[in-house]
């Protein structure tokens, strides 16, 4: 009974095994939430609440609820229930039944199944007990016309749950929340009600507040409340009464920021954002709407978050509040991987990915859970969870929970599955020995994944199938399998070796043990055994009985083993390894015997089968659609029966595949596919099967398929601010890549690739997601699919953005006077058609057909529609809000236009002062009409009255006080200034507006101590480090004394320091302008400047600060972090970062990338330096040389120019395949061998790794054979031996790099022959070597020839050259190379059968020759030079070295770029001589230095100003204008100033004002006596020397009138004595007068002789010039940059009137400058001012026109004394363009000192060009020379009394005669009458110009005439020198032998003009000019009027000085534009002061 029941249990277990193992092996899926409960739930006790939670999984998970501590949530009757579907219900409850642990706690939802368990986020539950509450209304009243605020006051205990839903305007008008309002009422989203424009009628109206409880939905209404209007009618500054301090919204939601302020008048709102470096105004746009107190932002993003500031302001002030907007961007949590399968014992790793909008989020608070329980933090490394040594306990559900600081949580779930694990035996049975009869149970337990299956064997064979054997098996809850073998009543034959085998797909394990049953030997039946050939056969003898003594095996009567492959094991089993079919098949016999001799035997058959073997096969590569293919699967061995089948991707071939399978024989199967398609790609498996084994062989077939659309993109429309998905999917093999591009313009234009960025997402399936689409996303999009097969496919679609109407602003106001026409306009943007409707008060639609006063116009604009509402003859009834409502198909919007109609009252009258004090005035008035109630207040306006200025300047300076509550008719005005005139007026104001002002009342306050700040403070930048500060003195009524000076304070605006740096400046006391130059400031920095005036009492108040910014400059630092990466063999990508912000010195305009290849070419011009500009921080350089090293530099540039260039960065382009080898030769070396040689590629494009030599044997047209040989890269030859005679062999070569094989050389063929002609196998061509090295010129030949070498066709013999050697091999070696060794070397070979010749071109690289250095210009602190490179020495120039030193100083050197051709030396000493020379370098060496140039910087000791320009006396003071003192190019350091009264005592003491007076604009000398003659002595100091001068002046009378005549006469007399007492002034004056007298005599003598000839030539010249009327050439004078190759425009109107010419030292008759150094080569500049021709004249272009440059001219600030000068200059320009009676007006303007022994250079001119239109028939040229003038200041036009200051002379051809030796300070100057013309053109470092009539080239003059004229010129020059022979110093000048032009005077016109000649003052009034050229002839000249004299001055001067009219004669001048001029073209004496 026991046994049977036990068997029943075993059967039951077997059934359980069948049912349990199946689901365990099926796919299980862990739980996952379908609906996760929210993080926060609130509900009312009256309504209850519920929490939904559902999950999915396999098996279906169960849902439970737990508390925060993990305890289960149970049901509480009537309070809490858990439904079957997982919902947790919290039922309504009474207030007394409130339990905190139920109604205010945290719940969690748990979902679990057999795989694992997961937990939801925390759910915070809050139940609110409903309580009764009451709301009140708080009224913030306001005055009439302003805005009142009604606030709904909610008790604090329900405030967060109650919101205001509406207001009720009694009796039944409901006002709901809106963003804009209707113009009168505006309910804000936060509940406040704004009532605008309060009137008396509003006081009778009532309002109630309606609120609603958020949870109970209960509505509570307040009691009605009335408005009240404040009686106070003044101005109330705004105050913020309500604002949302913190607004938190989620991304893509709308945000409303509220800021409500109250004030009167109603405040205006401004919004700012503080998210950047400073506050930025918030502008209304597509997403942003400014609605007064409301800032509304649609679809907020993370970029919108930050701090906002609202400012509310009116005339009374302003108030502000800060608001913070926080945008909660949703985060996505994901565990990677979400399902992980790991073998037992392995390591599992999960990573928690936290992203927001697709971008990773920084470190978060991450917790890990396993099956709902938190894991310890030790297993977590940041966001990664590692599970080592995975066991069954580790499988299950894992959760990553992210908790943000805001409190919300996010979670993701992953499942850990156990991977395949081989079985492991957990329990096994042991060996047993029993007697027959009892029952036996054998047990095995195993674990593995998947669950293993256990099978049993007995002695290797299945268990006997009889009723005594029962097998049972079941699976534990842990997944272990347990199997039993139960034997009832064991018998002897049951004995043997029992084995349990546990097996799954991961492996197999076995355990075996014997069961011994006592008894006689017994052998069970041996089944037929099939063995596999080649494997091991193990035969176990199934013997039973115990004990057994021995076991034997026999075969064919022979005991085994009889072979080495056979072995009988100790346990009696037979092992055969390996099995062979023929020898091992047969019958085997096993016999066993015990000790007693009893035995048993049994036989069994063994069959051996050979398994199949498949021959490898493969499919062809590169198969494409439409092609066909086939392959054969053949079985090389294996016993039949064989079965061959085919599989595709592991499955049988489908019928639709179209593949044919054909059995060629029983061992071969053919698979053929007639037409390939994409479906045919996959793995094809051939399966060969026989009884021994099943063998598979797999081959991959890949059909390349070009892309084709799966989802083709189509045109799309999207509404504005919406999302759109543009789908684009393609398929192909390989899988194509999808690229989206957007058109930059039209559909057929350029396309740019669309990249991932915010609101632009590129999905993995190829779709393009555009979020928050705006108008800028509209356009054409291109989707391209490409997989490398074919050209790819693409589709262009159009995306249209449908925009609803929107306005740029939400409201505007219009004010209009009563009776006028009101124009109400609105402009709306959006998609058309747009319908515009005008509405009154938001309700009534305005229709012109029903209202005659209105008319409506509407017109389309590019962006939308513009509408206009016109209301005629408006009155008060028309005031109010108007709405412009726009709508289209996609939405609508409206704009509020507030119309106000003004009706002002009448102005008051009878204004008078009732009381006057020092600081207050009481005034009273009378109303115009009594009894009117329209006046609500009176406004008293007052301002300071100044009769010296027009009243219009004071319109904005009226100050106001208001009189109201109630308005009365008098007012006290206080806080006035003492001793000041005031103007008062009164304005009446009513509800409709203000009246006109009353008549003004002028009142002067009583005096007091004065005070006042300076006015009109301005700061103007002069450079990047200088600011010119100017101001006006305080108003006279505020000075209260003489202003002694000013304190100027300045500071950086950006610094936090509040203190100013002050500098004192002396004042002038007369109320004039003051100025100060601030230097040494930071570049491009903003400064705040203040000024305060001080008098003898002390300083006054500070002025209002003004701000100014220094000018931009070039960046002082290069870009940083310059990086380079090679993209390909011809492209590099360069990136960089901007320079530090403090070193940009301006607004960066972009970057310039300078790059050049680093190559060692002979011709450096092959690859010049290139530069490219960009505004980005990266650039891709394309089209580069392959495999080349590039030098890359980057600079940033501002508007002012290029900044500092970065250090060179070297970057190498990548390798590429090489070009073809340059050449190949094939020659016969014997009858059976050919010698092949070749040249490497000219462009290897990388490192050559090998050469491939291709050989082809050709017999006629038939190719017999071909082969390929790989040769080392260093081998460039090959000898092919063992060839067939008289056969044609063809050879070609390719080179290979790491990238691949390059192009092949040309094919060279050769026929093997017995006759071997002489042939050279070496190659010729250029050979470059450095000097002093050795070169080997090869000449390897075949045919044993005779060699000859030639150099330039001259035969070379052994020892023919001292440094050459001929080797036996034929090579020529030349050692110690020199430049002369270069040339063509030819080698000729001849052996009687053939001849050959080869030429080497040897180029020897030597150091370069010295460059030619030119000096272009010099200033006081810089020298500009250019140079030309000489012979480069056959090697590129690598750089230049510039050497310079000051006289008697040390030599400095400077390294310059090899690309430079000019350089400016800066920071030099003023007025110093420098020695400069230059050398060049190449890779061989350094050149000799250039000729040493001696150059002097500009500058001399100070000059002398005119007294009228310097001094301005008053009654008791003297104004000294220090800025008028000329510094002659070197800045002034200080002044020494002293004065004394002129009395009878000649030894009167001097009063010292200052012995170290800083240079400043002016200084005032006080404490002088009126009507007194004074003498002033001054010294000016600069680095070049000292200048001293004395002046006389007379102070005015006490009343400011001119002094008495007798004192004036004493002043003139005294001054004359001063002049004649100065011997330095007297001698030059006499010499100049004498020279002028001689000149006039010479002109009269020559006039008659030349008169007829000149008249004839004048007519010819006039005719010749007509053809060239428009051919005008201009030249410029400025610092020549030689960097920009500007072309000269075609028309003269576009030509800059300047050009530069190069002048060299002349020989022969030219005057030679002499100095200690070598001769200079100088680049001088001449300025040509050309006037338009009436009949035309032409001049050839300058010879150096290629160096023309445009010139930018700056205008210096004019001083206040130079206004008349500027007018004079303007007048002269006007006259230049309006000629009268055919006169030419021009003047000689020369200014500066140049020694004939000096090499000083002329500085740059900034002279303004004259008008081009309306000029006279004759043009003139303006020669320009060096000047030394005072910067920025003009000389006064007042002249000394002792000179002919009021005379006007006309400049014609002026003659200068040789005189005394040259002086180091020589100045050519017009006579005194024209000093003011000169001074009017003086500017900082300006050049003085010599206006001389131009000569025109003419072919009509003969050479003989030129010689005759030249000879006469020399005679005239000789005569002139005789006139001046009385000067003892004339000999030194004669040695120079200057050739002079003799100016001649001719008769003036009828109106007569005074001669403008040369001053007779000085040592030598000479002008040295060039001799006439044969290319030019004289031009006749008419009378000339000075260009600087106004017409009325001429008339006046003619009347005043008729005796000064002179006779003038025509003369000749030369055009120097093409003549070679001396570097010292002019010499002139010093001009006395």
Structure keywords:
2033 residues, mainly beta, 5-stranded mixed β-sheet, 5-stranded antiparallel β-sheet, 12 helices, 8% helix, 42% strand, disordered N terminus, disordered C terminus
How would you describe this protein?
There is one protein chain. With 2033 residues, the chain is mostly beta strands. The chain is 8% helix and 42% strand. The chain has twelve helices and 149 strands. Strands 2, 5, 8, 9 and 10 form a five-stranded mixed beta sheet that branches. Strands 14, 15, 18, 19 and 20 form a five-stranded antiparallel beta sheet that branches. The chain has a five-stranded mixed beta sheet with strand order 23-30-29-25-26, with no helix packed on it. A hairpin with a 4-residue loop joins strand 135 (1511-1513) and strand 136. The longest helix has 44 residues, at 1623-1666. The N and C termini lie far apart (152 Å).
Short note summarizing the structure:
Helices cover 8% and strands 42% of the residues. The protein is mainly beta and 2033 residues long.
Low-confidence stretches: 1-26, 951-955, 1613-1623, 1663-1903, 1917-2033
* Helix proportion range: under 10%
Number of strands: 149
The coarse overall form would be flat
Question: What is the averaged pLDDT score?
Answer: 77
Work out the strand percent: 35-45%
């Amino acid at each position: 009974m026991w046994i049977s029941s036990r068997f029943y249990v075993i059967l039951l277990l077997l059934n359980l095994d069948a049912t349990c193992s199946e689901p365990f092996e099926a796919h299980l899926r862990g739980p996952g939430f379908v609906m996760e409960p929210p993080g926060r739930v609130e509900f009312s006790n009256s309504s209850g609440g519920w929490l939904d939670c559902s999950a999915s999984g396999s098996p279906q998970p169960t849902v439970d609820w737990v508390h925060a501590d993990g305890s289960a949530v149970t049901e509480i009757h009537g309070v809490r229930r858990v439904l079957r579907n997982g919902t947790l219900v919290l039922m309504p409850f009474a207030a007394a039944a409130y339990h905190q642990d139920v109604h205010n706690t945290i719940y969690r939802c748990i979902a679990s199944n057999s795989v694992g368990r997961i937990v939801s986020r925390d759910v915070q539950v809050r139940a609110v007990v409903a309580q009764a509450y009451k709301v009140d209304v708080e009224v913030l009243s306001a005055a009439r016309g302003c805005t009142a605020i009604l606030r709904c006051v909610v008790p604090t205990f329900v405030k967060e749950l109650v919101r205001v839903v509406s207001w009720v305007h009694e009796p039944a008008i409901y006002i709901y929340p809106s963003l804009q309002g209707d113009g009168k009422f505006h309910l804000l989203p936060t509940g406040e009600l704004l009532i605008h424009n309060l009137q008396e009628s509003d006081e009778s109206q009532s309002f109630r507040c309606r609120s609603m409880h958020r949870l109970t939905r209960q509505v509570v209404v307040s009691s009605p409340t009335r408005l009240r209007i404040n009686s106070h009618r003044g101005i109330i500054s705004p105050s913020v009464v309500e604002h949302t301090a913190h607004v938190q919204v989620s991304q893509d939601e709308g945000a409303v920021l509220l800021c409500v302020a109250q004030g009167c008048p109603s405040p205006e709102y401004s919004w700012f954002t503080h998210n950047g470096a400073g506050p930025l105004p918030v502008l209304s746009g597509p997403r942003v709407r400014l609605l007064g107190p409301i800032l509304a932002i649609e679809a907020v993003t993370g970029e919108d978050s930050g701090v906002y500031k609202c400012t509310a302001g009116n005339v009374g002030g302003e108030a502000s509040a800060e608001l913070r907007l926080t945008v909660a961007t949703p985060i996505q949590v994901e565990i990677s991987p979400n399902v992980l399968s790991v073998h037992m014992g392995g390591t599992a790793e999960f990573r928690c990915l936290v992203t927001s909008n697709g971008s990773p989020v920084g470190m978060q608070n991450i917790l890990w859970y396993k099956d709902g329980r938190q894991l310890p933090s030790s297993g977590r490394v940041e966001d990664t969870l590692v599970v080592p040594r995975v066991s069954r306990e580790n499988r299950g559900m894992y959760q990553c929970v992210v908790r943000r600081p805001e409190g919300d949580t996010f979670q993701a779930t992953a499942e850990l599955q156990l991977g395949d694990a081989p079985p492991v035996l957990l329990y096994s049975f042991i060996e047993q020995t029993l007697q027959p009869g009892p029952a036996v149970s054998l047990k095995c337990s195993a674990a593995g994944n998947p669950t293993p299956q256990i099978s049993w064997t007995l002695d290797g064979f299945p268990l006997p199938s009889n009723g005594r054997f029962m097998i049972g098996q079941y699976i534990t809850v842990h997944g272990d399998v347990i199997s039993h073998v139960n034997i009832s009543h064991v018998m002897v034959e049951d004995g043997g070796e029992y084995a349990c085998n546990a097996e799954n797909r991961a492996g197999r394990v076995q355990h075996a043990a014997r069961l011994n049953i006592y008894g006689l030997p017994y052998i069970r039946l041996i089944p037929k055994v099939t063995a596999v050939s080649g494997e091991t056969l193990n035969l176990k003898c199934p013997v039973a009985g115990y004990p057994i003594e021995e076991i034997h095996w026999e075969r064919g009567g022979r005991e085994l083993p009889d072979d080495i492959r056979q072995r009988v094991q100790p346990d009696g089993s037979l092992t055969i390894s390996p099995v062979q079919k023929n020898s091992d098949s047969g019958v085997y016999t096993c016999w066993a015997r015990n000790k007693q001799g009893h035995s048993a035997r049994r036989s069994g058959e063994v069959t051996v089968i050979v398994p199949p073997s498949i021959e490898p096969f493969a499919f062809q590569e590169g198969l494409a659609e439409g092609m066909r293919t086939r392959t054969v699967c053949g079985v090389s061995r294996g016993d039949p029966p064989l079965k061959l089948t085919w599989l595709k991707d592991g499955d049988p071939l489908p019928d639709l595949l179209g593949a044919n399978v054909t059995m060629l024989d029983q061992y071969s199967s053919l698979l053929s596919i007639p037409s390939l398609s994409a479906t045919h790609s996959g793995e094809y498996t051939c399966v060969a099967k026989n009884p021994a084994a099943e063998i598979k062989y797999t081959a991959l077939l890949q059909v390349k398929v070009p892309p084709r659309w799966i989802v083709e993109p189509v045109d799309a429309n999207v509404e504005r601010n919406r999302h759109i998905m543009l789908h684009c999917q393609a398929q192909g093999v390989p899988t194509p890549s999808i690229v989206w591009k957007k058109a930059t313009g039209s559909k057929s234009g350029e396309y740019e690739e669309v990249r991932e960025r915010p609101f632009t997402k590129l999905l993995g399936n190829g779709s393009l997601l555009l979020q928050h689409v705006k108008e800028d996303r509209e356009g054409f999009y291109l989707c391209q699919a490409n997989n490398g097969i074919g050209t790819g496919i693409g589709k262009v679609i159009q995306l249209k953005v449908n925009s609803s109407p929107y306005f740029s602003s939400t409201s505007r106001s219009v004010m209009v006077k009563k009776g006028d026409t009101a124009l109400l306009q609105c402009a709306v943007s959006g998609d058309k058609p747009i319908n515009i409707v005008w509405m009154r008060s938001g309700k009534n639609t305005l229709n012109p057909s029903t209202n005659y006063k209105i008319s409506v116009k509407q017109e389309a604009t590019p962006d939308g529609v513009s509408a206009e509402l016109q209301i005629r003859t408006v009155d008060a009834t028309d005031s109010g809000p108007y709405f412009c409502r726009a709508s289209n198909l996609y939405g609508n919007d409206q704009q509020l236009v507030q119309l106000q109609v003004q009706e002002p009252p009448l102005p008051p009258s009878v204004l008078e002062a009732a009381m006057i004090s020092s600081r207050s005035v009481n005034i009273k008035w009378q109303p115009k009409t009594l009894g009117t109630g329209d006046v609500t207040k009176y406004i008293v306006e007052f301002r300071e009255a100044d009769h010296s200025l027009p009243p219009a300047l004071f319109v904005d300076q009226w100050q106001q006080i208001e009189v109201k509550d109630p308005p009365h008719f008098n007012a006290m005005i206080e806080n006035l200034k003492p001793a000041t005139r005031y103007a008062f007026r009164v304005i009446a104001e009513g509800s409709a507006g203000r009246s006109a002002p009353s008549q003004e009342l002028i009142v002067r306050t009583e005096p007091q101590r004065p005070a006042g700040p300076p006015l009109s403070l301005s700061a103007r930048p002069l450079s990047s480090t200088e600011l010119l500060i100017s101001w006006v003195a305080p108003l006279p009524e505020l000075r209260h004394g003489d202003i002694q000076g000013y304190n100027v304070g300045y500071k950086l605006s950006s610094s936090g320091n509040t203190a100013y740096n002050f500098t004192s400046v002396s004042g002038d006391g007369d109320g004039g302008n003051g100025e100060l130059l601030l230097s040494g400031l930071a570049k491009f920095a903003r400064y705040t400047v203040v000024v305060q005036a001080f008098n003898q009492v002390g300083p006054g108040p500070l002025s209002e600060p003004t701000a100014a910014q220094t000018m931009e400059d070039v960046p002082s630092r290069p870009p940083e972090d310059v990086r380079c990466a090679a993209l390909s063999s011809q492209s590099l990508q360069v990136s960089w970062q901007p320079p530090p912000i403090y070193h940009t010195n301006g607004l960066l305009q972009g970057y310039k990338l300078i790059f050049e290849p680093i190559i060692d070419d002979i011709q450096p011009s092959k690859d010049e330096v290139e530069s490219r500009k960009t505004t980005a921080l990266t650039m891709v350089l394309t089209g580069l040389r392959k495999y080349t090293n590039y030098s890359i530099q980057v600079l940033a540039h501002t508007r002012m120019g290029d900044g500092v260039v970065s250090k060179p960065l070297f970057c190498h382009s990548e390798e590429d395949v090489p070009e073809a080898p340059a050449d190949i030769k094939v020659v016969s070396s014997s009858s059976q061998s050919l010698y092949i040689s070749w040249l490497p590629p000219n462009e290897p494009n990388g490192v050559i790794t090998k050469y491939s030599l291709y050989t082809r044997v050709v017999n006629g047209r038939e190719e017999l054979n071909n082969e390929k040989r790989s040769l080392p890269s260093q081998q460039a030859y090959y000898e092919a031996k063992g060839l067939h005679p008289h056969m044609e062999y063809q050879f070609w070569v390719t080179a290979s790099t790491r990238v691949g094989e390059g192009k092949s050389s040309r094919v060279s063929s050769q026929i093997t022959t017995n006759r071997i002609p002489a042939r050279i196998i070496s190659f010729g061509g250029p050979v470059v070597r450095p000097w002093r090295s050795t070169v080997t010129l090869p000449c390897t030949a075949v045919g044993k020839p005779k060699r000859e070498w030639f150099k330039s066709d001259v035969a070379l013999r052994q020892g023919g050259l001292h440094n050459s050697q001929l080797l036996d091999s034929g090579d020529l070696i030349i050692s110690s190379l020199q430049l002369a060794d270069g040339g063509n070397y030819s080698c000729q070979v001849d052996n009687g059968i053939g001849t050959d010749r080869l030429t080497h071109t040897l180029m020897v690289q030597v150091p370069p020759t010295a460059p030619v250095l030119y000096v272009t210009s010099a200033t006081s602190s810089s020298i500009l030079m250019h140079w030309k490179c000489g012979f480069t020495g056959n090697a590129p120039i690598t750089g230049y070295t510039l050497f310079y030193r000051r006289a008697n100083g040390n030599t400095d050197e400077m390294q310059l770029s090899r690309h430079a051709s000019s350089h400016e030396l800066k920071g030099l000493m003023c007025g110093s001589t420098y020695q400069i020379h230059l050398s060049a370098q190449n890779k061989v060496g350094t050149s000799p230095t250039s000729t040493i140039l001696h150059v002097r910087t500009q500058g001399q000791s100070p000059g002398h100003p005119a007294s009228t320009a310097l001094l301005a006396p008053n009654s008791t003071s003297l104004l000294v204008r220090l800025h008028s003192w000329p510094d002659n190019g070197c800045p002034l350091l200080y002044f020494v100033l002293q004065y004394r009264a002129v009395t009878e005592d000649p030894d009167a003491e001097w009063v010292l004002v200052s012995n170290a007076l800083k240079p400043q604009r002016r200084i005032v000398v006080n404490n002088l006596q009126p009507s007194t003659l004074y003498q002033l002595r001054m010294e000016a100091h600069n680095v070049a020397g000292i200048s001293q001068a004395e002046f006389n002046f007379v102070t005015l009378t006490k009343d400011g009138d001119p002094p008495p005549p007798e004192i004036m006469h004493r002043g003139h007399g005294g001054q004359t004595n001063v002049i004649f007492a100065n011997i330095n002034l007297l001698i030059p004056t006499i010499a100049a007068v004498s020279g002028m007298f001689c000149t006039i005599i010479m002109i009269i003598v020559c006039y008659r002789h030349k008169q007829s000839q000149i008249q004839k030539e004048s007519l010819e010249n006039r005719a010749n010039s007509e053809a060239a009327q428009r051919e005008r050439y201009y030249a410029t004078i400025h610092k020549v940059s030689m960097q920009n190759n500007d072309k000269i425009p075609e028309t003269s109107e576009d030509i800059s009137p300047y050009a530069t010419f190069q002048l060299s030292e002349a020989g022969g008759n030219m005057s030679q400058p002499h100095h200690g150094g070598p001769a200079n080569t100088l680049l001088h500049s001449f300025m040509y001012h050309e006037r338009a021709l009436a009949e035309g004249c032409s001049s050839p272009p300058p010879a150096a026109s290629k160096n023309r440059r445009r010139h930018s001219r700056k205008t210096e600030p004019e001083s206040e004394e130079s206004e008349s000068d500027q007018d004079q200059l303007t007048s002269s320009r006007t006259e230049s363009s309006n000629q009268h009676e055919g006169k030419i007006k021009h003047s000689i303007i020369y200014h500066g000192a140049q020694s004939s022994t000096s090499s000083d250079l002329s500085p740059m001119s900034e002279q303004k060009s004259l008008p081009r239109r309306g000029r006279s028939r004759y043009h003139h040229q303006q020669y320009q020379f060096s000047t030394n003038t005072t910067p920025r200041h003009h000389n006064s036009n007042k002249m000394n009394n002792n000179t002919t200051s009021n005379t006007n002379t006309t400049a014609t051809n002026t003659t200068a005669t040789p005189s005394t030796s040259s002086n180091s300070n020589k100045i050519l100057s017009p006579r005194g009458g024209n000093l003011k013309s000169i001074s009017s053109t003086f500017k900082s470092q300006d050049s003085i110009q010599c206006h001389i009539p131009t000569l025109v080239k003419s072919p009509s003059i003969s050479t003989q005439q030129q010689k005759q004229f030249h000879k006469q010129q020399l005679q005239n020059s000789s005569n002139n020198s005789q006139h001046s022979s009385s000067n003892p110093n004339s000999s030194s000048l004669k040695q120079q032998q200057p050739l002079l032009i003799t100016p001649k005077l001719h008769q003036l016109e009828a109106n007569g003009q005074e001669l403008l000649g040369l001053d007779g003052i000085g040592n030598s009034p000479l002008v040295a000019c060039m001799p006439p050229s044969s290319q030019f002839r004289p031009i006749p000249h008419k009378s000339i009027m000075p260009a600087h004299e106004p017409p009325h001055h001429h008339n006046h001067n003619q009347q005043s000085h008729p005796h000064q009219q002179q006779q003038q004669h025509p003369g000749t001048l030369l055009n120097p534009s093409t003549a070679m001029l001396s570097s010292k073209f002019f010499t002139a004496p010093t001009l006395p002061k």
